[in-house]
From TrEMBL:
<protein>
    <recommendedName>
        <fullName>CopG family transcriptional regulator</fullName>
    </recommendedName>
</protein>
Length: 92
């Protein structure tokens, strides 16, 4: 994928925490992954809103299943970001 340099303003303390954790060479990759995750989250929110408009609100059982799936997805992302793979959690 082609890349382009952008200027982004971040809180200094946050940026320095991230840089200290991932190192200066991985900072852009970390920010890219964070933005990708936020976009996926936003798209899922749009899908949920559309589905609720079309079919009505979730039942308690549907909400419990959705919460469990969200935990699995979050675990998968955590494992992915830590380099642990995580295919098992996504397939469960």
């Amino acid at each position: 994928m082609a890349t382009k340099k952008y200027t982004v303003t971040l809180p200094e303390e946050l940026a320095e925490e991230i840089r200290a954790e991932v190192g200066p060479g991985a900072f852009s990759a970390y920010v890219t992954r964070a933005i990708e995750r936020q976009r996926e989250h936003d798209r899922l929110g749009e899908l949920v809103a559309w589905m609720q408009e079309k079919d009505g609100p979730l039942t308690e059982e549907e909400q419990a299943a959705a919460d469990a799936e969200l935990r699995d997805i979050e675990r998968w992302f955590e494992e992915r970001e830590s380099g642990g793979g995580g295919h098992e959690a996504a397939a469960a």
